[in-house]
Structure formats: structure tokens, C-alpha cells
Design goal:
By secondary structure, the protein is α+β, with helices and mostly antiparallel strands. It has a single domain, classed as Nuclear Transport Factor 2, Chain: A, CATH 3.10.450. 20% of the residues lie in helices and 42% in strands. Strands 1-2-3-4-5 form a five-stranded antiparallel beta sheet, with helices on one face. A hairpin with a 7-residue loop joins strand 3 (56-66) and strand 4 (74-82). It starts with a helix and ends in an 8-residue tail after the last strand. Mean pLDDT is 90; it is low at 1-6.
């Protein structure tokens, strides 16, 4: 943890999603679907990076599949901001990139 604390303002390394990040992604699924104009049959958070700036930014890779979609390699990259607890801790989707593939790296946008 000390390494990430020394990197305040920078993005962490890519990590498998935690339960906390998974819950954040699930809570923001309707907003991500609204942004892409697609209702996803499958929506599985896979990996994430985080950044601490006036709260926490989560850059997340989500494995998705549309209804009746034969493609298995579709992903969404989303940035979700969580405000500081003293500011209410509100979640906001600040960016979405779609379509992406499973091999596309998580790059801040």
C-alpha cells in the first residue's frame, strides 16, 4: 500500500476487481448501459486501476455481451468517480469506451 500512497494522483497498476469495486460497477450498470445505449446480458467486472484525486477514480474493464450477440470478446472500459465520504461518497460515471476487446489495455482516457 505504501507504493500506491507514494503515487497519489497517478494510476495504480492493473488488479483483479475486489468486492468493493464489483459493487460499484453493479451500482453504475444502468448509467453505463444508458451511455452505450445497450442493455447487456452479461456484465462482469474483470480488472481495474484506481487513482486518488478528490475522491477515487476507478478505471474498470467489464466483460459484456449483448442479448443475442455471438461475439464473446466485447468489453467496456469505464471510469467511475467516487467522491470523498465528506462530500457524500456519490458515484458518477465520467467516461465510457465501447466497444473494446478483452486484450485492449486499460489506458486512462
Amino acid at each position: 500500500m505504501a507504493t500506491e500512497e507514494a503515487n497519489l494522483g497517478g494510476w495504480s497498476t492493473v488488479k483483479p476487481v475486489t468486492e468493493e469495486v464489483k459493487e460499484i460497477c453493479i451500482e453504475e450498470k444502468p448509467e453505463i448501459e444508458k451511455t452505450t445505449a445497450i442493455n447487456f446480458k452479461d456484465y462482469i467486472p474483470l480488472l481495474y486501476k484506481s487513482q486518488t484525486v478528490n475522491g477515487t477514480n476507478y478505471l474498470v474493464k467489464l466483460d459484456v455481451c449483448q442479448e443475442n450477440d455471438a461475439l464473446e470478446d466485447e468489453c467496456v472500459h469505464a471510469i467511475i468517480h467516487q467522491a470523498l465520504p465528506c462530500n457524500g461518497g456519490e458515484l458518477t460515471v465520467t467516461g465510457v469506451q465501447y466497444p473494446k476487446t478483452i486484450i485492449d489495455p486499460l489506458v486512462p482516457f
